[in-house]
Amino acid sequence: MQAALHQVLAVRPLSPLAYLLRRERGALEFQPGQYVRLALPGLPAQREYSVYSAPGEPFLELLIREMTGGLLSPRLRRCRPGEALEVEGPFGEFLLREDDPGGAFLFVATGTGIAPFHCFARSYPGLDYLLLHGVARSAELYGAADFDAGRILPCLSREQVGREQGAAFEGRVTDFLRAHPPAAERLFYLCGGCDMIYEIFAILRRRGVPAERIFAEVYF
Ligand SMILES: Cc1cc2nc3c(=O)[nH]c(=O)nc-3n(C[C@H](O)[C@H](O)[C@H](O)COP(=O)(O)OP(=O)(O)OC[C@H]3O[C@@H](n4cnc5c(N)ncnc54)[C@H](O)[C@@H]3O)c2cc1C
Questions:
Q1: 4-91 adopts what CATH topology?
Q2: CA distance 91 to 78
Q3: In ligand 1, which atom is closest to the CA atom of 217?
């Protein structure tokens, strides 16, 4: 596939390490849940990023966490408006099965794995879902205000849950699911690191959830 050149519009920091990279949409058409592959001219690294914004928006936004010592994510953070990005895609099958009679979705994200769910929530108003967002500390709850308050449950693994966090769970997303087993007839979407995904897959399978009802996007 031929890479298209898109201009960076803005880089907005969300926390000491995470940022939103907004760039031109160009002619790119994508479905919620898909990702693109990015590179910078002259840098020998291509990396995948889920689309954070919705297909109806005039720009394309990506939520990126800078990996210390990483090849691309620290450099993307320093992009200036007008700088060119090489973009391939869209790719991926992490798409909502909207016609499923099982109804409510359970979404589970760790860290920037919230990106495709942000795109789902913006793309499908009235969607019936609960999102568990696992992070170490509340400063990493990126974009939480963009979700309906009753539909997102932060799970904080390294911070005590105080009153300022509102409804939140103290522990990892896996702890939450062990303590609160979900109904097996839901559709389950998991996005983030492979350790979390393997662990939740095993929890759900033990609860009798058929593998066909579990969808995963593995970031690393
Ligand atoms: C389909 C897909 C979608 C992705 N979407 C996103 C996204 O929306 N936002 C995002 O920030 N990243 C996303 N990633 C991860 C991203 O592609 C890069 O791996 C990440 O930005 C690090 O690239 P780098 O060149 O800076 O680091 P590298 O030079 O590749 O080295 C970084 C090291 O950290 C590991 N690593 C990568 N990501 C993480 C992480 N989040 N936490 C801990 N360790 C990690 C890698 O395995 C590697 O060992 C996605 C990956 C895939 C496969």
A1: Elongation Factor Tu (Ef-tu); domain 3 (2.40.30)
A2: 25
A3: 1
